[in-house]
Amino acid sequence: MRPSFCNTPDTVIDKNSFEPAYHQLSRFIEAKIKSGELQPGDKIDSETFWSERLRLSRMTVRRAFEILNKKGLIISERGRGTFVARQEHHDINFKVTEFSQYMREQGFYPEAKLLEKNIVAASQAVADKLEIEQGKSILFLSFLKLASGEPIVFERKYIVVKDELQLSSLDLKDEDVKEYTFSKIVEKVSDFIPISSTTSINATVLNKTEAKILQVNEGTPGFFIEQNLYIVEQRPVALGLYLYRGDKYKFTSSFNY
């Protein structure tokens, strides 16, 4: 295993730069990986190391690591640390069409049922994704998307809000949920305007609770999608978690050769 960056110069971060510190740090580590100085399987120094060495907050370092993780350059293993990822698989880009549009194109009538609208305390897992403190009050929405009456997608959305009092009188109807994109919902309920997003798709099987909601048998194949919405400086403001029935939905990709 290769040595850590114990001699990393303090000048890695230019605190007078307009580029956020976490972008500078992620770029520095990425360059080391792509140059071969760090090889697949090599351990990356801890958040504590980078925080103390470069006099950055742990949150700043965590955001840098998240950027590298989303690019598939590093992987974290609980209890072991963070390592350079092995580039054995290549990302494939899929087109994810908005639900209502997709269903109309398939000849179905799209519907939506708002299941829950609540102010909740952010769990540790959600707080980490939204880069907020655990327990902070956020908006939670859950709803079911249907095609001509048949459940297809179970959605959960966690949204950072500016004004909790405004939410108590929030008028969000089934029709809004059906027609609005995620970013439009965020704008409506929080006054934040998302400018970018990241989306990941993984295969899964539905557990008992999920299967009951989607009215299928436990163990039915499905797709789990995670979507993160950002405002300026890659600041996350919303997290969407989606469960699609694998027997009723498909994702396609196309390539130019």
Strand content: 25-35%
What name is given to the CATH topology of the largest domain? Answer: Chorismate lyase
CATH H-tier superfamily of the largest domain? Chorismate lyase-like
Strand order of the largest sheet: 4-5-6-9-8-7
Shape: globular
What composes the largest sheet?
A: 6 strands, antiparallel
Helical segment count: 9
List unreliable stretches of 5+ residues. none
Average pLDDT over all residues: 81
Question: Secondary-structure map with pairings?
Answer:
Layout lengths: L20 H15 L7 E2 L2 H8 L3 H13 L3 E4 L3 E4 L14 H7 L4 E12 L2 H7 L6 E11 L2 E10 L4 H5 L5 H6 L2 H9 L5 E10 L2 H7 L6 E11 L3 E11 L12
Antiparallel strand pairs: 1-3, 2-3, 4-5, 5-6, 6-9, 7-8, 8-9
3D architecture notes:
With 257 residues, this protein is of the alpha+beta class. It folds into two domains: 75 residues, Winged helix-like DNA-binding domain superfamily/Winged helix DNA-binding domain (Arc Repressor Mutant, subunit A, Orthogonal Bundle), CATH 1.10.10; 147 residues, 3-Layer(aba) Sandwich (Chorismate lyase). It is built from nine helices and nine strands. Strands 4-5-6-9-8-7 form a six-stranded antiparallel beta sheet, sandwiched between helices. Strands 1-3-2 form a three-stranded antiparallel beta sheet. β5 and β6 form a beta hairpin. α2 crosses α3. The longest helix has 15 residues. The radius of gyration is 21 Å and the shape is globular. The two termini are 39 Å apart.
